[in-house]
Protein: Extracellular solute-binding protein
Organism: Streptomyces phaeolivaceus
Amino acid sequence: MESSRGQVPGGGTSGGGGAHPLSRRRFLGAGSASLLTVGLAGLGTGLTACGSGGGAGGGDGKTLTAFVYGDDAVKVQQAGVDRYNKSAAAKKAGGTVKLQKVPGSDYSPKLRTAMGSPSAPDIFFNWGGGSIKPYEEAGKLVDLTDIIEGDPVLKDGFLPSVLAAGDLKGRHYGIPMRGMQPVILFYNKTVFAEHKLQPPTTWDQLLDINAKLKKAKITPFALGGSDVWPELMWLEYLVDRIGGPEVFKRIQDGDAEGWGDPTVLKAAELVKELIDDGAFGSKFTSVSYVNGGAPAVFARGKAAMHLMGSWEYSTQLGKFPDFARSNLGWAAFPTVEGGTGDVRNVVGNPTNYWSINARTKNKDLAVGFLKDCASEAYAQALIDNGDVPTTSNAADLLSSAPNPEYAKFQYDMVQQAPAFTLSWDQALGDGLGTKMHTEIGKLFAGQSSPADFVTACKGLK
């Protein structure tokens, strides 16, 4: 299934991530989403119009068009549109919002085409970071920073780490509109109990657990190496734990020399040590997450742990429901001794965002619509859909989630995070992200050394 989250689809149950065909976390099981990294090359003028007109730059501003990723989760956004159009705020702003659902496989090209046409949407779904960078550079986005700072509903309505995760150079261009998708260290509770193990809180503990598991002929970690994107999660967390979020932020902001930070080399060296030590077994480069291989290895006890996005729960619930309900455990990624990164920091796909086209003729109406995403009704609709909202009011609503314990763990993890680093490929955009995947694949397959990996990444353009 292709969806919008961090899965191809992209994320957990049916929410939103998105990835490009060469990229990551894509087919994540029942209700999973798709991480379709938006291919935004060729934004220009003179492209064929998409839609029926009346979007940004067209019409009188009384009907605004909102492009949305058309997966199963879109019912939450449709309900939000219906609610907003009946509200006093919409009446005061003098208009209504019309949702245009674009099939997931068509979303990226249709958005790109539409944004270069007279029929551009006034509001549109995106993944933040690199997915909107070309639009920002072309002057096509409303900078929401001052609007958010001046509006208590928007300023206080969302978890700060998630709101900031979709930023470009410290400026807000989007409002969170789907569920969170942090990367989590999952473990098999039965295996851990049988071998008297506890989830690791430090890197040394992780290595000690690895040794005990290998002695028992159990592979420490499942890894879908043939897809490459699951390997990226290891580097994301290690770089964060060793050097903090600032290391990748420098790279994301366009400084390729940031790859030369000693933190990146150290992270690559730790990865190589894990591989050489057999932490992922000997055949992980031929195992896939997308076809269910890695989840099966994990659920059947052949591997004791799995570093994966939060959608792993829904994937396991769909494929191995008994395991998901009884034996699936979860924990935060451990600290690395001597590292400066906060153990509370999170990496992954914070959420999806609504952004506003700079050409819209009714900005007040558009901003009012974005504010509805902070409402309790919107948060409850996400929870009912199996998502964990990124709103600051969600904590009191999680008791109605399909798995309240798991939902609360995710929410607390993100709520307490000083920083939430957007998945590197999403943050860098399609072109650089794909090239980076190639280098990560070489590192994990033993085709390049940690030093070679750093050198190659510094040369990415």
The chain is about 40% helix and 10% strand. The longest strand covers residues 63-70. The two ends are 32 Å apart (CA to CA).
